Design the sequence.
């Protein structure tokens, strides 16, 4: 067997096997499916309905966007964020149960392990986020085929990016409690400062600067631009333009995958 074929088998076979394992594990836990779908939906409806009477997008005029419509992209991103990040908790469980040590002792590449776990988490996150696109009419948004495909593509980038970040953190953290603490401390501020909950144009100067420096802002802006269009509401909210947001999101996704791979290569399995 040639070295190229051997290396390919040591990468793609474990990648596909670990991806399938993540998906099957999720489908066998109905409580995860219910909580993943119900929690963001309730969050969107309660907060969106509560703020809908008081929210007005600065500079939007007569064609303003209501809070349910503005908050909708951020809610879908929150679905992807939670699903992608917390699916990587399985990495800690696999290490505790000895499964990960067994995988690493086998003739497989680290790239196969990283790819399988990240692809599994990203697939679950993307499916859950894409399912929420069906609620766009309830937010007052009408999607044509082009905008729906663009929105689904942005969600795919975000799902891979966030799953890779979750993998890198889970590889270094030794307990699920520590993982939850780190993720809650990191993720909620990132999401709140991404323009998902309130627009940068309505924030104080220092906070607006922090929001524009937040990497997740570009993912939210790209997804919002795919749904609302690149003008109008996007400019009124102070979000980055669609093209810039897509480019930054793609670059950050590549960087997150590289980080996950580097973490697995340089850090041993504890």
Sequence:
């Amino acid at each position: 067997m040639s070295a190229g074929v051997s290396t390919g088998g040591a990468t793609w076979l474990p990648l596909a096997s670990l991806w399938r394992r993540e998906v099957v594990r999720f489908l066998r836990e109905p409580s995860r499916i219910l909580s993943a779908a119900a929690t963001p939906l309730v969050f969107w409806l309660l907060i969106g309905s509560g703020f809908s009477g008081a929210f007005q997008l600065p500079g939007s005029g007569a064609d303003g966007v209501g809070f349910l419509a503005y908050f909708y992209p951020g809610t879908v991103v929150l679905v992807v964020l939670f699903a992608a990040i917390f699916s990587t908790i399985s990495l800690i469980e696999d290490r505790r149960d000895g499964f990960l040590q067994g995988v690493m002792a086998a003739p497989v590449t680290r790239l196969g392990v990283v790819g399988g776990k990240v692809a599994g988490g990203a697939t679950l996150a993307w499916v859950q986020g894409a399912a929420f696109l069906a609620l766009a009419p309830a937010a007052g948004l009408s999607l044509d085929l082009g905008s729906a495909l663009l929105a689904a593509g942005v969600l795919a980038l975000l799902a891979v990016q966030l799953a890779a970040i979750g993998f890198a953190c889970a590889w270094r953290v030794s307990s699920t409690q520590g993982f939850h603490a780190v993720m809650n401390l990191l993720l909620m501020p990132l999401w709140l400062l991404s323009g998902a909950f309130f627009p940068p144009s309505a924030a104080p100067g220092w906070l607006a600067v922090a929001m524009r420096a937040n990497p997740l802002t570009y993912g939210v802006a790209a997804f919002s631009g795919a749904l609302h269009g690149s003008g109008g509401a996007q400019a009124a909210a102070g979000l980055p333009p669609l093209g810039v947001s897509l480019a930054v999101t793609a670059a950050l996704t590549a960087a997150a995958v590289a980080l996950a791979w580097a973490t697995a290569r340089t850090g041993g399995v504890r």
Summary: Residues 171 and 264 are 7 Å apart (CA to CA).
